Amino acid sequence: MEKDPVVEKVREIYGQVVESFNPIRSPELMVKALRDRYKLLVKNNIVYLTIAAFMNNKPVLYEGPPGTGKTEVGEAILSLWAGKKAFVLPCSESYDEYRVIGDFHPLIAMSKGFNEESFIPRPLLAALILNAGVLIDDIRRSSEEFQNMLLDIIDKRRIIIPELKRVYKQEGTGFQVIFTSNPEDIAQRELSDAFLRRVIRIKFNYPDPEEEEEIVRLRLGEDYELIPKEYISRALSVVQYLRKKALYKPGTSDTVSWLALSIKIAKGRELNRVNARDIVEAGEAVLVKNPEDEEVVREAVEKHFKE
Ligand SMILES: Nc1ncnc2c1ncn2[C@@H]1O[C@H](COP(=O)(O)OP(=O)(O)OP(=O)(O)O)[C@@H](O)[C@H]1O
Ligand SMILES: [Mg+2]
């Protein structure tokens, strides 16, 4: 069979970043691999639902507040499912098919025309050709036109490039799609009914305190032992309180960054244990993302960590 120059280009450009390993398709093994290989504590139902959707070739939408692991979990599940690293497309207003499917090099196109030679394949096409997963991050930031274009590709499982008179079809089951979205971000647009009808929606939420403690332990590794246990539970109370009272609601990612930073501060002071002062300083640096929250953060942190 004649070699397709676009496929060759994709292999050449993206093949090196998409290293392959054994795919994992069983939910139990997936939960374990997420924990062991990616340090992610993921609820069984999230994994079961996602895998069920993939088995039906359906795209998945992860919705939930900031810092609850949507992006990292999505990327990890897609990678484990396909047995190769997933592609991540961080959406913005200006995203269009040229940014995700392919583009023509202007100078080469001028001299050689709009053909395989001047064509530059982009990640969505590369994922389809390489049979890898795609995480489409923060879908609400993109235009409705872009969303419709994606849905058409995902429905039909193929990409058409009119200039090249070519159609690329999904081969294999690795090409799956996860969208992420944060519905509480008022700056972002609503998703259309057409969009919502086609995706399997999975809700992410803040973990309960035991799970959050487990996540902190998983993420901090050996350093976890440097923080007195009592301080960890106080820190968890602070973030829970702020999720109710502050404008910026700290996610699990903020809890982890807060405690990780307090360890760095303690190490910088050559202490072998984190003390309350380190935690207070780190807290004020990490938890205030909105100037109006300064007061409520300071009060909450100081109240919980006064010595
Ligand atoms: N279930 C989890 N297991 C392990 N770490 C987690 C988990 N949830 C959140 N984290 C922490 O949060 C970070 C990942 O957050 P991520 O960026 O994926 O969240 P997000 O929901 O995509 O946030 P945003 O809405 O801001 O994009 C991890 O690096 C880790 O520190
Ligand atoms: Mg994200």
Written description of the protein model:
The protein is an alpha/beta fold and 307 residues long. It has two domains: 5-203, 3-Layer(aba) Sandwich (Rossmann fold); 209-305. 50% of the residues lie in helices and 11% in strands. It is built from 14 helices and nine strands. The protein has a five-stranded parallel beta sheet, sandwiched between helices. The longest helix is centred in the C-terminal third of the chain and has 17 residues, at 229-245. The N and C termini lie far apart (75 Å). Adenosine-5'-triphosphate binds at residues 39-42, 66-72, 180, 182, 215, 219, 252-253, 256.
Brief rundown of the structure:
With 307 residues, this protein is α/β, with parallel strands linked by helices. Helices cover 50% and strands 11% of the residues.
- Ligands bound, unique: adenosine-5'-triphosphate, magnesium ion
- Major β-sheet, in short? 5 strands, parallel
Order of helices and strands: HHHEHEHEHEHEHEEEHEHHHHH
The total count of strands amounts to 9
Poorly predicted regions are: none
Helix content: 40-55%
Within CATH, the superfamily of the largest domain carries the name: P-loop containing nucleotide triphosphate hydrolases
The N- and C-terminal alpha carbons lie at a distance of 75 Å
Side by side, the strands of the main sheet go: 2-5-8-1-9
Q: What is the assembly state of the chains in this entry?
A: single chain
CATH architecture of the largest domain: 3-Layer(aba) Sandwich
Structural class: alpha/beta
Structural descriptors:
2 domains, two-stranded antiparallel sheet, alpha/beta, Rossmann fold, 307 residues, binds magnesium ion, 50% helix, five-stranded parallel beta sheet, binds adenosine-5'-triphosphate, 14 helices
